[in-house]
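<instruction>
Derive structure tokens from the sequence

<record> Sequence and structure tokens follow
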Amino acid sequence: LILADPPYEARDFEKYGVKPFNKAKVVKDCSAIVKPGGFLAWLDTILPPFSKRDWQLYGIIGLVQSTNHRTRAISIFQN
């Protein structure tokens, strides 16, 4: 199981002092790391780009903190 909670937008990358990265590449790289049949849980404000050759979308769980906050989703993938 890989748990991922990357910065969501440009302002978040700046806030945490990290450089923006290619989310699609990271999702693909995770498929090479996790064991066959393993899972990736990705927390984000978007469904990250992924290849159906590498991952099957297993489910999505909505996450709401409170009013006037960004809604996030935990996207669960299985390879």
